[in-house]
Amino acid sequence: MAHQFPALTPEQRKELSEIAQRIVANGKGILAADESVGTMGNRLQRIKVENTEENRRQFREILFTVDNSINQSIGGVILFHETLYQKDSQGKLFRDILKEKGIVLGIKLDQGGAPLAGTNKETTIQGLDGLSERCAQYKKDGVDFGKWRAVLRIDKQCPSHLAIQENANALARYASICQQNGLVPIVEPEVIPDGDHDMEHCQYVTEKVLAAVYKALNDHHVYLEGTLLKPNMVTAGHACTKKYTPEQVAMATVTALYRTVPAAVPGICFLSGGMSEEDATLNLNAINLCPLPKPWKLSFSYGRALQASALAAWGGKAANKKATQEAFMKRALVRNYYLLSTRSSGSLGSGSHCFLQAMKYLQSVF
Ligand SMILES: O=P(O)(O)OC[C@@]1(O)O[C@H](CO)[C@@H](O)[C@@H]1O
């Protein structure tokens, strides 16, 4: 029997699935430029630039005014509230600059963590109060997707059952509210890579977290075809002494996803989670070449792994605009290159011609 109280009309479902598919079309991924003021402060501190609104605006102007061909690699950009209403030095809104390039606009909707009492320093994410009104306003202002990041940590008794359930439920409630307002929800349950756990443990935890998230999304009647998932790759913790190849990371990651993420989800866009730009590229390449079934688009929604060299090239100086844009473009283009080359050839083993060609190309541009 069909659902008696459908959450969305056929027109709403069509709009949502079209937006999701546009973002991940033809090897495109997402630029996560949604660092909060505090997070951007950490990034700017590393290049010894003061964390002022004007400096944040200047860096983002350089990224967004890059050559139009960026739209071949970047399907969507996630913005922070402040950035959505900022303008370039000629007075043009960033959102108009991005839209004219055919890039879909997204917005960070979560509002920071709150402690879960009685746990080992675990958190839930705030921002559900007033979320529907915020989504409605953002939709009017040209935004078509949202992002909500939940953080799960691997440690003694972590993640707890409470943290997994609470964060899964908050993600599902957020996703439902987004869809009611015409925004595609990016669902981001990040198992962070802090700690000395091995890759196998990360896979176990990632599977538990994703299984809980998809149960909650189903309970909340979320239309999966109109969502995107932004997960961590399955890797060892930063302090783990055992090292893994990109092929091992790919096998563990695709296995975890294959066991837990329904095929109705159109795209999975990984976060980079503090990986180097090179590792983020090689791992994503290996994921796309992994010879397991992959019913979804497998792409990127990187923050640091798309901006680290660009930030370093900029160094807070307007005179470095060209070098900054070149560094950003290079990172975006190389990912699009192999996403297209691996997809057009289907699933390939690591000995295949295409795999070797892509690896050779990637090594030559680092
Ligand atoms: O891990 P990365 O790829 O740098 O960033 C992923 C991300 O979700 O985490 C950041 C911090 O919240 C956000 O700015 C960004 O969207």
From TrEMBL:
Pathway: Carbohydrate metabolism; fructose metabolism; Carbohydrate degradation; glycolysis; D-glyceraldehyde 3-phosphate and glycerone phosphate from D-glucose: step 4/4; Carbohydrate biosynthesis; gluconeogenesis. Its main location: cytoplasm. GO terms for cellular component: centriolar satellite. It is found in: Cytoplasm, Cytoskeleton, Microtubule organizing center, Centrosome, Centriolar satellite. Keywords: Glycolysis, Lyase, Schiff base. One of its GO terms (biological process) is glycolytic process. It catalyses: beta-D-fructose 1,6-bisphosphate = D-glyceraldehyde 3-phosphate + dihydroxyacetone phosphate; beta-D-fructose 1-phosphate = D-glyceraldehyde + dihydroxyacetone phosphate. It is an enzyme of class 4 (lyase). The keyword Transmembrane does not apply. Its EC number is 4.1.2.13. GO terms for molecular function: fructose-1-phosphate aldolase activity; fructose-bisphosphate aldolase activity. Homotetramer. Interacts with BBS1, BBS2, BBS4 and BBS7. Forms a ternary complex with G6PD and TP53; this interaction is direct. Belongs to the class I fructose-bisphosphate aldolase family. Catalyzes the aldol cleavage of fructose 1,6-biphosphate to form two triosephosphates dihydroxyacetone phosphate and D-glyceraldehyde 3-phosphate in glycolysis as well as the reverse stereospecific aldol addition reaction in gluconeogenesis. In fructolysis, metabolizes fructose 1-phosphate derived from the phosphorylation of dietary fructose by fructokinase into dihydroxyacetone phosphate and D-glyceraldehyde. This is Fructose-bisphosphate aldolase.
